[in-house]
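Researcher: Sequence recovery benchmark, item below. Answer with residues only.
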């Protein structure tokens, strides 16, 4: 097993002169079996990295779409153990990099060491722990390094320049720049200044920088692909599940159609400098 599936994915995209496509789904939405099929559909559609949201009862960084996805998953009986099962089942048919998008309460409850060990054993490649600041991450970083997990940290539009260096030092996978203030969710227009902000982040790191939050159509994807190393799409895909709950085949069809629409016309193509 490679310890650098994530960096290899970005290297492949760079060699093909394009941005990487990072797709988010909530693990277990609307249930475990359908979630396996939904993840397979995205992988077969050509995503580069799969971001699995770990269902949590109080997802403060998420908008209504992803809050409801977490609620559906929890109501279907999704647990931390079943998130690990989902990752293991994905590993039966794919080597796509898997990032767990989680909240620190869930890590803390299990213990950083035990959580990292279990995540790695299940096939995860990185942890994005949304509400854990790098200043308080010593134990978490040590556990991830010990078990060969990459770390992903978020930079917000409001992050002051003096904190960028600290965030970048704590990151070993990729930097996740959120394209707007607030929570996740689809939006009609993109924030201005994405390229300038990505360039400022890159002054502090050689790692890839991806952009997410609110990217929901092909124009958004194309805009971000011109500025960043990767594009993250979440709510627009989660809504395919929300609109077809109870029908796994319809969910798979909707996800495939959405992926085709998002990447139509080579929207992920870009020229790396």
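Model:
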């Amino acid at each position: 097993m490679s310890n650098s599936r994530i960096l290899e994915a970005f290297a492949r995209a760079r060699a093909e002169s394009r941005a990487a496509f990072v797709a988010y789904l909530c693990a277990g939405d609307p249930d475990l079996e359908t979630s396996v099929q939904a993840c397979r559909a995205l992988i077969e559609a050509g995503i580069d990295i799969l971001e699995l949201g770990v269902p949590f009862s109080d997802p403060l960084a998420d908008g209504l779409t992803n809050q409801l996805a977490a609620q559906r998953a929890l109501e279907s009986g999704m647990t931390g153990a079943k998130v690990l099962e989902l990752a293991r089942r994905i590993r039966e048919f794919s080597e796509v990099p898997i990032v767990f998008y989680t909240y620190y309460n869930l890590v803390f409850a299990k213990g950083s060491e035990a959580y990292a060990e279990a995540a790695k054993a299940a096939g995860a490649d990185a942890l994005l722990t949304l509400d854990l600041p790098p200043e308080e991450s010593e134990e978490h970083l040590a556990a991830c390094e010990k078990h060969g997990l990459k770390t992903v940290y978020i930079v917000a539009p409001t992050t002051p320049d003096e904190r960028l260096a600290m965030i970048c030092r704590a990151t070993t996978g990729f930097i996740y720049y959120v394209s707007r203030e607030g929570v996740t969710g689809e939006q009609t227009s993109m924030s201005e200044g994405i390229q300038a902000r990505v360039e400022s982040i890159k002054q502090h790191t050689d790692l890839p920088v991806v952009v997410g939050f609110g990217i929901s159509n092909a124009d958004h994807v194309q805009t971000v692909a011109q500025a960043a190393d990767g594009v993250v799409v979440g709510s627009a895909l989660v809504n395919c599940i929300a609109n077809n709950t109870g029908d796994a085949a319809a969910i798979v069809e909707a996800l495939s159609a959405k992926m085709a629409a998002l990447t139509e016309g080579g929207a992920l193509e870009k020229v790396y400098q």
